[in-house]
């Protein structure tokens, strides 16, 4: 029983972590691409 509850919390925690980090990854990728193109032109 406790193991099942722990698995549920682990799944929920993983989903929350994915949702929370996803915007940061997108922003980092956007800024990374912008800095790369700026560096390439200069």
List its salient traits.
42 residues
In short:
Helices cover 95% and strands 0% of the residues.
Please describe what this structure looks like.
By secondary structure, the protein is mainly α. It is 95% helix and 0% strand. The chain contains one helix and no strands. The chain has one helix at residues 2-41. The longest helix is centred in the middle third of the chain and has 40 residues, at 2-41. The relative contact order is 0.08. The mean pLDDT is 88.
Write the layout of secondary structure elements.
Layout: H1 2-41
Order of helices and strands: H
Total of DSSP H or I helical runs spanning 4+ residues: 1
Helix content: over 70%
Mean pLDDT: 88
Query: What fraction of the residues are assigned to beta strands by DSSP?
Result: under 5%
DSSP strand count: 0
Low-pLDDT residue intervals, each spanning 5 or more residues: none
General form? rod-shaped
């Amino acid at each position: 029983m406790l193991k099942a509850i722990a698995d549920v919390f682990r799944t929920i925690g993983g989903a929350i972590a994915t949702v929370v980090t996803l915007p940061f990854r997108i922003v980092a990728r956007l800024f990374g691409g912008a800095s790369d193109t700026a560096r390439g032109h200069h």
